[in-house]
Amino acid sequence: MLTRQERLVESRTPGTLRRTSLRFVGLVARLSGAFERLSPRARNFLAYGLALAIVFVVAYGISLGQVLGALRRANLYLFLPARILSFLCFFFGETLLYSRLFSYFNAPISYSEMLPANAAQYFLQVVNAAVAGGALVAFIHRRKKVPWLAAGCTMIFQTLIDFQLMAWMALFGTVLVPSFPYKVAWYYPAMVIVVLWAFAGFWRLGPTRWRLLRWFYERPSWDSFRKARLRHYLTLGAIRAPIFLVQGVSFYLQMVAFNIHVPLAQVLAATPSIMILTALPIVPVGLGADQAVMVHGFRGYGSKADLLAMSLASNAMGIVFRLLLGLTSAGTFAKELAEQANKGPYTGEVELDRGDANWLYATEVNRKEE
């Protein structure tokens, strides 16, 4: 029996393309359904398995002795402070960022309130990656009684600001540093900036005459986009930008510590590409993705063994820092957030406005039809 997505594809595509599309859509739907039925522990196991598989593929042709030799030659007195600086800047900077973000659009929340929640999120990124992404949303819902969808859309708002900053950095990189890794034409990041500002303008112009767009605009869960003013964009961007810059400087110092000599300007220009590729949610804390990006993106500046050793050491330090957070009260708090996030927004205990409730009901009906 065909699923709803398969019937839609069949009605719109002819011949061989239709049959191929049907197989692909069916495969994706079945894999997605199978993944959703897995326990969080099983999902975590698969995520780490995929990450290790990527590491083994990237490390092909590099012996363990070469990696250990690179670690022995590394300047740990430079590497460790650089990695610690990067982690602390990210952790405390994001705590400030999220406290401002949710205070602007959902409910007032202080820095001290946000600190344990962010620590729990960082800890969950290692021990339960399947729910780490929803940890802050679960916290805001539980502590401030903000609906799940509203809190989730606020996180999306910040994500779009992050993409704007990374697009600006990539644009400057393509113009000012023509030889930087992951070279792209200048108009690609420029197009991203234009699209994101057009999307922001959509919310400032108000509802349109088009029924579908008006319905989309009026969803209560998008309240953060409607409330946003220029000062919100500038303030949140001003908090996030130094975090990105410190991350770029940290990349540079870590490379120097492992005898990988890349000009600072090139590292800063490549930082957005590195962060986007290593932040993909399919692997925990960038493991696997980090190795692929570093080894293939900077292979012209150092040996593969040095690049692999540096990225593995950086990942290992990040995991250790996150596990150390679990030894504090963040570990207990993370367990509570994980239980709350696993319940999800379909438990009936979350108060939704009528528009969002209708949307969720329609989604459930479609899923049952399939």
Task: Provide a descriptive summary of the structure in words.
With 370 residues, the chain is mainly alpha-helical. It has two domains: 1-37; 40-369, no CATH class. The protein is 78% helix and 0% strand. It has helices spanning 4-12, 15-37, 40-58, 64-73, 76-105, 111-127, 129-132, 135-144, 148-176, 187-205, 211-217, 223-227, 230-257, 264-278, 289-297, 304-326, 329-343, 354-369.
Brief synopsis:
The protein is mainly alpha-helical and 370 residues long. The protein contains 18 helices and no strands.
Q: What is the mean pLDDT?
A: 78
Uncertain runs with pLDDT below 50, 5 residues or more? Answer: 5-18, 346-370
Order of helices and strands: HHHHHHHHHHHHHHHHHH
Structural class: mainly alpha
Approximate strand percentage = under 5%
Shape descriptor: globular
Largest sheet: none
| Radius of gyration of CA atoms, rounded to a whole number | 22 Å
Measured as a percent range, the helix fraction is over 70%
Q: Would you count the extended β strands for me? A: 0
In DSSP terms (H or I, runs of 4 or more residues), the helix count works out at 18
Count of structural domains: 2
